[in-house]
Amino acid sequence: MRILILTHSFNSLTQRLYAELAADGHTLSVEFDIADSVTEEAVALFAPDLVLAPFLKRAVPESVWRRVPTLIVHPGIVGDRGPSALDHAIQHGYTDWGVTVLQAEAEMDAGPVWAHATFAMRADATKASIYRNEVTRAALAAVRQALAHYPDWRAGRWRPRLQDYADPAVRGRPHAPMTQADRALDWAAMSTRDILARVRAADGFPGVLDTLFGQPCRLFDAHPGPRLDGATPGTVIGRQHDALLLATRDASVWIGHVRRADSDHPFKLPAALAFAKEAADLAQRADLQPAYPDITYRESADGRVGFLAFAFYNGAMGTPECERLTAAVHAARQRPTKILVLTGGHDFWSNGIHLGRIEAAASPADESWRNIQAMDDLCLALLEATDRLTVAALQGNAGAGGCFLALACDEVWARDGVVLNPHYKNMGNLFGSEYWTYLLPRRVGEEAAVRIMRERLPLTAAQAAARGLIDRVFGDTVKDFADELAVRAAELADDDIDRRIADKAARRAADEAAKPLATYRAEELQQMWRNFYGFDPSYHVARYHFVMKTPHAWTPRHLARHREPGWHTAAGGAGA
Ligand code: COA
Q1: Right CATH number for 2-162+559-570 from 3.30.300.20, 3.40.50.170, 3.90.1210.10, 3.40.50.1000?
Q2: CB of 145 sitting under 6 A from ligand 1
């Protein structure tokens, strides 16, 4: 089918749908929801069989849905109507929820239902995490179901079901948008559990409006902290790295990230960085347990496999995160294991250098330079680990430099459903480093490397494996992936491991003799120097818009394929 994806932005759900539907053989093009006239133009140019809207913030124009069937992906069960659907479900503690694909009509979310799918709510997860995992998986299933109805719908043999509130099977109800008053924290009265639930229901957007050090800010990235007696609930009582510890009535919570509207940097930042002056005198409390979840290391029962996890918020890795992880890799190498598995975090493996920290720095160019050096040092620590095998185990998505960090490991395994964005150019034509000029062609060959970088498209784990970018894909959920990971790592340790380690060391030595890693790094960094300090400010402009979340003014050409001259004569169209 020819499908126009109409979306507010190319977010994780849209990327997954794009990549999976392209793999299903559909012909796809994307238009961002910028203005009704732009959408109308896209429909006229592409002449789609249907319009699919996975992520919209406003209604589809009548001139479009009257002309072409338009399917809206709503992150709620059948009957649920209105914004903040998932926020309500999490905050009210529903144990199951769903996704509905409905046809656009005059009233938002009120059209007939083409398909729906349900899922069990994961306890203690943030809204963003449920969206990236359960909602995305259910949305894909429901969209596929809906598309399967299309031929019958067209032939008049099938009709979508109206949302009938008299039907007991229709459990959802219309609701008002959730306000900050609904989300408000009462530190004196609420338990740690309630406070965590409220912050998680608003994470990653819009956060919970509160105050820290007497200043208004939005709270994100909340985790349980230790029981500490005597402090006034809601006050800051310590820090771990850049996370702040706030007393609660019955224990404490870590707040990892905040957004201050009143500052020069009105975007999400590590909490102690956003309140640098106020947090300067707080003692680092590495001893406090439960700690702020960050870098953790454990070993398999037989001691042959080490697992290094790094759950950096949003997968963003600033200079301090890279330095601490490099130190953790060196420490792990002191252990007598045969395999080191790097597991990243639940939702993200890594998204490369920390664009927020960079934007907030006194000199973003200098901080970009420091950050990329720290990232390269981390890659180098992995590349030089020739005394054991390394495995990148991607539970969550990876983008830009984060993808190439994974390729620095000997094996790359990913959860089925992970989306990879192995390219840099979307960030103001950034050249990229992380030894990608060595790592990418080594895996896929020169020609394919150029194509991947140029296409700038998301790849599902299965597509990445088919292209030789990664090695294995397994496990549908993070839990399935973790279970199978332990088994597969043990099998790898059994698989003639000493010979494999010796082969790896020999290959690294041969590669080093052919062209030293230092040369790859120097060549890449020469280009990056131009990105950071050169006359073309594209990277700085793109980074600013990325962290400020400036609404898009146009759809990038590589996505809006219908705007390419002669696109319809190209073999197979856009999705092929
Ligand atoms: N630095 C800081 N924050 C980052 C980040 C980075 N490198 N990458 C992602 N984020 C943040 C986003 O701002 C967003 O924040 P939010 O919680 O306030 O919404 C969150 O992580 C999720 O990112 P989002 O863009 O919504 O995720 P996605 O799954 O839709 O898209 C990417 C994934 C990787 C395509 C996209 O995040 C991206 O382009 N990131 C930048 C990658 C990059 O250029 N890194 C620098 C060069 S190495």
Answers
A1: 3.40.50.170
A2: no
